[in-house]
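Memo to structure team: turn this sequence into structure tokens by end of day. - J.P.
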Amino acid sequence: MSIPNYLTLLRIILTPVFVTTLISYGPGKEHLRLWALGIFILAAVTDALDGILARLLQQKTALGQVLDPFADKLLILGGYIGLLFTNPLAYHPPLWVTITILFRDLVLSLGFFTLHFMHVPCKVEPNLFGKLTTTLQMLLLIFILLEWEIAVPLAYVTGIVTILSGIIYVIKGLKQIP
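Reply from structure team:
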């Protein structure tokens, strides 16, 4: 197994640790918010690093092409669902943003599996909007955990970009149907 794949597995392992730490945060437990922030940043760095190393070391693998987006979705969805159970934070994304993030990933996953079961060769390639969406979703979680006010407008930008990237992926998926 390649180094990038190990980093992706580390991100998967860090996800339940992050979510558990996040939802355990409450009054008098400020250290848990900071721990959750640190764990999330470490996991987010593994996301950037695994892609860079896969290209630099020429270690792109079929396993990595499946595990990396899965690990991203697990981390991000875990974070946004965890926020629903974390009341003392200064900022939360509007509920529509969280629902948009969940719904987009559900639609894309269902679309992928539908194409797979229809025996349609499905080539999933990340695009600029997909990468921007992941980056914005991760940054929003970081700013929320930092309790920075910029999280408020960023939540709306993240929601809009999430919708646009979902539409782009759906259109690309529909074009693959013969």
